[in-house]
């Protein structure tokens, strides 16, 4: 099932916008929740290159244990995970008054209308299909950071 995600770290280099995005994303705290080590590491590399602070979690329970300590500005969560799936994890995050406003972006290898709708129903702010590119990942961060902090530079 993970064979498709292996290529994720090696696709998508943004052009001249990279430097501009990196400055805008410096210091943004991003949590990546995925049971695939390849996806977590790829996202971590992309985000660190952009100047983000990265918190990794390998499932929903791990994420819920770390979220209060780290208080991320944005959360990426895989849908298909053991124990606590992405929908359940997102719903729990959004039900918490302290993190209700924190943007949650669902990650999935499935790109169906039903999956997107279900993500919206549990409160997700965006849906990103895997394998994602560096550009699409950073664009999602930039979009939600700007929306959450309109007073920033």
Textual characterization of the structure:
With 153 residues, this protein is an alpha/beta fold. The protein has a single domain (16-147), classed as 3-Layer(aba) Sandwich (Rossmann fold). The protein is built from six helices and five strands. The chain has a five-stranded parallel beta sheet, with helices on both faces. β3, α4 and β4 form a beta-alpha-beta unit. α1 (17-25) crosses α6 (134-148) and α3 (60-70) packs parallel to α4 (86-95). It is globular and about 35 Å long. The N and C termini lie far apart (42 Å).
Provide a quick synopsis of the model.
The chain is an alpha/beta fold. 44% of the residues lie in helices and 16% in strands. Helix 2 links the parallel strand 1 and strand 2.
Unreliable residue runs: 1-21
- Given helix and strand content, the structural type is alpha/beta
CATH topology: Rossmann fold
- By CATH's scheme, which homologous superfamily applies? Response regulator
How many strands appear in the DSSP assignment?
5
Order of helices and strands: HEHEHEHEHEH
Average pLDDT across residues? Answer: 84
Largest sheet: 5 strands, parallel
- Widest sheet: strand order? 2-1-3-4-5
What distance separates the N and C termini?
42 Å
From the 3D coordinates, which CATH architecture would you assign? 3-Layer(aba) Sandwich
Q: How many domains would you count in the coordinates? A: 1
Counting H and I runs of at least 4 residues, what is the number of helices?
6
Cα Rg: 14 Å
Helix content: 40-55%
Strand content: 15-25%
What is the name of the CATH class? Alpha Beta
Shape: globular
């Amino acid at each position: 099932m993970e064979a498709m995600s292996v290529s994720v770290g090696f696709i998508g280099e943004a052009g001249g916008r990279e430097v501009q995005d990196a400055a805008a994303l410096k210091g943004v705290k991003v949590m990546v929740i995925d049971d695939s080590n390849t996806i977590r590491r790829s996202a971590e590399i992309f985000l660190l290159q952009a100047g983000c602070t990265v918190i990794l979690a390998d499932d929903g329970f791990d994420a819920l244990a770390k979220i209060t300590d780290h208080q991320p500005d944005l959360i990426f969560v895989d849908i298909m995970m053991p124990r606590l799936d992405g929908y359940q994890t997102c719903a729990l995050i959004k039900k918490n008054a302290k993190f209700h406003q924190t943007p949650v972006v669902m990650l999935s290898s499935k790109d169906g209308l039903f999956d997107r709708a279900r993500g919206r129903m549990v409160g997700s702010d965006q849906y990103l299909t895997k394998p994602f590119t560096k550009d699409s990942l950073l664009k999602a961060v930039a979009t939600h950071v700007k929306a959450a902090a309109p007073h920033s530079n």
